[in-house]
Amino acid sequence: QQIAQIFLGDSTRWRDLLKTNDTPFSDAEAQALAAGTIVRYPIESSVGKRYMEHELGAGETLWDLAVRFLGEGARWQEFRLEDFSVITAAVLDELGPGEVVLIPLDKNPLDYDVAVLWSGESVSDAADRLLGDSKRWTELRDVEFGLLNYYDVAKLPVGMVLVFPLDINRDEFLPHVVEPGESLFEIAEAYIGDGSRWQEIRRSDFTYVTNAYAASMQAGDLVYISLGADKDTFRRYELQAGETLADVAAVLLGDADRWTEFRDENYRLFDATTAQDVQPGDLIRYLIQIDKTKYGEHRLWSGESLWEAAKRLLGDGARWTLFRDADFLPFTEQQAETVTPGTLVYYPLSVAETGEASGWGQYSLQSGDTLIGIAERFLGDGDRWHELLKDDRTPFTEADIAKLQPGMTIWYPIEEGSGEEGEGGEEDPNTPGQWAPGVTYEPHELQQGEYLWGLAEELLGDGGLWTEFRLEDGSRLEWKDHGSLPVGTILMIPTGTPSDVNFPDDYELHTVGAGETLQSIAEAQLGDGALWSYLLKENGSGFTEEEAGALAVGTKVYVPLDAPTVTDDPWAQEPRPGLKTYVMGTQTLWSAAQEVFGDSNLWREFLRPDGTPIKDSDLVKIKDGTILYYDPVRTFLKGMTAHTLQEGESLWDVAELRLGDGARWTQLKNAEGGAVTEAY
Fold first, then answer.
1. Most CB atoms closer than 10 Å: which of 2, 507, 556, 643?
2. On the CB side of 57, how many CA atoms lie within 13 Å of its CA?
3. Taking a C-beta distance cutoff of 8 angstroms, is the pair 531, 567 a contact?
4. pTM for the whole thing?
């Protein structure tokens, strides 16, 4: 939570943080985070701030600090208290000497380096030496990270420590020891390919070389040359007998004339002379530069061969030889015979654009359309949405689903005997089996101030049953539809859908006493402590493992009157009342989470029948037809803190107090997890 607060500006967004394998942290892993754990976080335009601590001195104001460290006094509102909470007007009056505040920096302090001001050197000269541009002197800071004052720069003493931002990746630089008689021009010619670019070379302290340094450079000096990429990203190739650099470039880079991009074992570029001197066994270093604008990406489907992919993407199966693998190398015939589902394939878009579209139909996405609805319409089964293709004829990913825009071209397979869209007329959506088996629907026009949860509460008696609503085309509603459906949208409401639990009439209330746990309550009331997950909170949702481990005396717990049947297989347990269900199709668990929760990273919100979280060991058991469960109340309010309104307090006041900005009141939710509206 602290890391999310620092880098994302919101502690509740900790689930956006990823492990090094790009998977989210589980609740247990988040609670037991070890020092040294590497955490990946998304870079966003409005966040990415790092903070440094500052202890307020006597007479020091936040305005003064903002001028000194951020260049503008009004930016004091970006400061945070030591616990990363927002500094409100009430808190501001209580701050005094000795209080610690956190000041945001555009870079991590570790991304700065230090140097000293030379004799006779101006601040502009120092910026030219340290940053390569004299006009960037405003980016220099003093040893306490304060910005340099324009009126004081002329008075800075010789030897003053300057802090400057490092805007380089040191792994991209190659160390080179200057040889006798060697000039910077010759070094740039050998490693950069252009001697006139010698001013891009850095000295041993990574500051830029200057004319003065070029005139005084001596043999044995250490300099650094930028290779334009991390040294570890260069690939290696051992020259075979009879091969020339042009031959190798034709295979590895697709163009024989690009042999000039090759480097020798010491990263020196080949020239016309050294290219003639290569011998079998010599090592060649090279970079693969992928132009994403000219190639599309595709991962092979289950059972799909390169020939089949080429026929679909390029219009001719024989064009599979134009594909390139993850290293951007052509596939060999042996590789073509052994490819597996998920293999990454790059294909040329120029060929794909001219390929035949035989066997495929086109549909222009309309406002309110979903992939499931389109698949239902053209393929007869919403679960087949993954067979739809984008305009470049590649499959939709989970990330694409959230970016659908009206006017997008959707490709769908035309199956033999299926006919085109509309053939045979449209069926009545109330026909049994067309949408939900045996359920009829009535239309409802969404009104101002209505939201899905509250509407389901009013019409079906359970807010969690909003998932039973449909759009006019029969497509399911998604988590992201909350608060985003426009007024006037026609919703199809199922009639006669009973709630699957009569809460709390089927339960008895138990107040937690000293020393009691959910396990001990379940043991006493239900005869088995393992049934603790069937106990419910006051709002009808289940307890998480974290909540079970921090149960407070006085907590109200609802215990089912009838103990559920217990089996050894958690997937064969009697479903816990109050949970909603989702039937898996051929899609992945991540795409199912995207559909239900609006975020593929929330796949761990799916539960077993007994309400306990899905374990990694369960993943192999989840397949087409598996019934997954989720707790809508718990998921709606995940990561949120309760606040009881005080007399005279408005939602604006709450947002000002809790979020630091009254205008963010629309981000609050009501007790059922629904959005708060102006009418509310």
1. 507
2. 3
3. no
4. 0.33
